[in-house]
Amino acid sequence: MSAARCVSLLIALAGAFIPALAGAGETDGPPESWLRSGPIDQPPAFQTAAYPLSDQANRGNWIPYAPFCDEFEASRLDPNRWVDRNPGWLGRQPAFFSEDNVRLADGKLHLTMRRQSPPEALARQGYHTYSSAAVQSRFRVLYGYFEVRARPMKSHGSSSFWFYDSAPDLWTEIDVFEIGGAAPGFETKYNMNVHVMKTPTVKEHLSNGAVWQAAEPLADAYHVYGLEWDERRITWYVDGAAVRWVNNSHWHQPLTLNFDSETMPDWFGLPRDEDLPSTYSIEYVRAWKKVDAASRPLFEDLTFQRGFLLSYPDSAHGRKVEAVLDFGEAGNRPVWRLAQWGTRFSLAGAACRKCSNGDRVYENQGKMVLAAGADSENRDVILEIRGQAEYGNTARKAGAGWPHLLVEQDARAIHPLTQLEKLPFRALLKRLRFADHMPKEDFDPARHAAQFQMFFIVKNIDARSRDFGDYFWFGVPFFDSRHDIPPAFQARDGGKADATGKFIYTIDGRVVNHLPMQTGKWITFQGDLLPFIKDGLAEAGRRGFLQDVDPAHYAVVNMNLGWEIPGTYTAAIQIRDLQIHVVLK
User: Fold this and answer.
1) CA-to-CA distance for 369 and 386, rounded, in angstroms?
2) Could you report the per-residue pLDDT of 250-300, keeping only the tens digit for each?
3) Per residue, what are the HEC states of 216-259?
């Protein structure tokens, strides 16, 4: 959570940021926001926990989204879902977050605020007098319906339910509620907000806050609080009734789910000693995604936590597995293949090195693969290839192979292109290292490069088609040592003995990013790839690689992502928040 969650909520900015509807009939377009002006007269009756309280008939076609569901009936917090702190923040001063204030009891999650002196290291940073608590989801989520049954603490401390992520060039936040349960004047105020801290083009803080007035003090009883978040709109619910919505102009970033208690001295005031300890309790959190029109992941394990099936260096072995890199965890069932074609140094004999921050590392002279721990700043995966070890101080000769380091996976479901509305893609990439060891006198830009890219196999899946089983390569370039931003490229796959001979259709890098990749800088790559895949299919037909170019006969069946180094370069790239989805018509 950022310190920029201003206690004033910057409500004055709301009119300039997301204008509210002034009144009925005063605009020709759709309203930008709405806020309930009175109490909830007839809240929906609870019938089943299978669906949101606001939609007990399931008209929205909701299905449970397990990673964000928890009834809190265990004896301890589920470490696969939650972290008992905020990994990126120590708390809002003067209170500090303490794991000791997080506990499960009586089928509920309890976050307590108490009077407590901080450790000396925190005292030196300005923390004093109070401790509080935070819980954060281990995963991020984009869109859905999220519901909790909770009772805020009855003190001046805040009880909060919110979503955020602070990626380097994109930092947004959705506050479902911030409640000051016993703060004078705030006992019945249901505070809601959305924030944009920064985007690649906007650096100032934008905020749109609103308050709904409840009939009774919110800390006196448990209530059901909900958030519905999709591409068009963000809607807040209390006891199943909508109390506010805003059009979704900015919140299209995967976010973590957070519960916490904070001191907010300039807003709610500091807690009174007689009110402490006070506890914010959550009975459950439930989440759903829509069946229809919802984004569906096209690939699994996008945080790379289940290990890798290691290919042989010689691509003639096809999909045979030389070794299983399972991080030494017998229960892992990898879905990713790690392709190390053309290398002199197989990872098959490398041991898994486990680091104190949870990172798992396999490496040798020629390469390194790091799968990050959940709290590690190295998340989610780092791929490094060491071209000087592979080539020495020589340059690759024409027709010779070159080392690869790619993660590869088959699609979890096959969808003909004509069934898709969109194929959205998003990832954050940071170049960690890049070193040029090329002998300058031997450098030929036609055959020497370091390239980091993603390729899809787009294959004919119709058994009645003349091209059944044939395919082309669809490429998305991220980094090419010869260019600031990689250009478009279309050609026959060739240049080495094991080339497939299939058509390669690589889009211009500016389709997904407009910034050159610099060492140490995060870059967000994103876009809808579907129209470009269809263009690639048509171009494959025009060039004679395919005869049947009916999109109904083709689907994305496989992807690979990583390095190809046909030059003497050493380079590493870190990948975060990889998202590849399909949206069905």
Assistant:
1) 11
2) 998 889 999 999 999 999 999 999 999 999 999 999 999 886 555 688 999
3) CCHHHCCEEEEEEECCCEEEEEECCEEEEEEECCCCCCCEEEEE
Neighbours of 169 (CB within 10 A): 15
CA distances from 418 to 291, 391, 539, 583 (A): 18, 45, 17, 11
124 and 88 in a single domain? The answer is yes
User: How many domains, the chain?
Assistant: 2
Map tokens 């994305």 to a residue.
556
Other beta carbons within 10 angstroms of residue 123's beta carbon come to 12
Residues 415 and 436 in one domain: yes
To which H or E segment does residue 131 belong? strand 130-132
User: Domain check: are 115 and 252 in the same one?
Assistant: yes
Residue 26 has pLDDT above 90, yes or no: no
Task: With beta carbons less than 8 A apart as the criterion, state whether 9 and 207 touch.
Answer: yes
At residue 304, what is the residue type? Answer: F
Residue 20 lies in a domain: no
Domain that holds residue 480: 297-584
pLDDT one-digit tens code per residue, 434-479:
999 988 889 998 889 999 999 999 999 999 999 999 999 999 999 9
Query: How far apart, in whole angstroms, are the C-alpha atoms of residue 35 and residue 85?
Result: 33
H or E stretch at 527 = strand 522-528
Same domain, 354 and 273: no
> Residue 50 falls within a domain, yes or no?
no
Tell me, yes or no, whether 265 and 327 share the same domain: no
Asked if residue 268 belongs to a domain, the reply is: yes
pTM for the whole thing? 0.60
Q: Which residues does 361 contact at the CB level (< 8 Å), separation at least 6?
A: 352, 353, 354, 355, 368, 369, 370, 371
Last residue of a domain, one of 291, 307, 326: 291
Q: 459-492 as b/e, with b when 16 or more CB fall inside 10 Å?
A: bbbbeebebeebbbbbbbbbbbbeeebbeeeeee
Q: Which of 291, 316, 339 is the last residue of a domain?
A: 291
Based on the fold, state whether residues 246 and 370 are members of the same structural domain: no
Q: Rounded CA gap, 344 and 335, in Å?
A: 25
75, 201: one domain:
yes
